[in-house]
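Homework help board

Subject: predicted structure for assignment chain

Our instructor gave us this sequence and asked us to write out the predicted structure in token form, then describe one feature. I got the tokens but I'm not sure how to describe them. Can anyone check?
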Amino acid sequence: MKNTVFALILMLAAFQLSAQVGFNLGFMGGPQYTMMLNNQPLEAGGKGFKYVPTFGRTGTFKIGYNFVPPIGLHVGVTYSEQGQDYTTVDSVGFETRTSRRATYVKVPILLHLSSAPGPVMFVMEIGPQFGLLRDASISVAGIPQTYTFPTTLLWKANDLEFAWALGAEFCVTKGVHFVLQHRGDYGIFDFENKDVSNNGVPFYAAERKKANNMALSIVGGMNFIIKGAHSKTTRHYKGRTWRNNWR
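My token output:
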């Protein structure tokens, strides 16, 4: 616990944080690289497992409140398309590609830290994220697979993740910022439903390892500072005076 507190103090000092009290509304979106981290094939007998780079899309709407300089709390709703493609080789050397896809709605609850106000501000966010599975599919060699149950039952309905964001906000005009960020999340627990059966036969092998979701994105968007939520701190940047009304 002491190490955690000490690390947080160091982060605050490194960022020279001075975010002001007030509400923020933002939206952002972009492409993301996704993985389902388990290098075991679903199909029995598949050998030579190889990950295939897999991409999806993501979009986030968030609202935040910087309650005590320099710390804020930001929550949001994120739409995330993710999954994993991989190839295996059968006994005669024939390569087959399997695609797993999932759509999640995620709710991040993040500690928000930012640098001093100016034309460019650096931002860091960390915290938990709750994922709600909305859709799922599996295809083998381009052929969608069907089972005696909805495909969504192959995964747990909920996923708990550690989420983060690193990036910058660029002042466009008073109260309006352009946002460019790297955002990511990593599932803490096994997201596969190991209890599901197909025609009475367990879908997953008993010795199958746990699987974790991961998503890494580059997003762009806008952040709006609600009028009336600004402090009156004045700072100087390269000979110019900036009032602390950007955040």
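Reply (TA_rk): Your tokens look well-formed. For the description, you could write something like this. Confidence is low (pLDDT under 50) at residues 8-20, 228-247. That's the kind of observation they're looking for.
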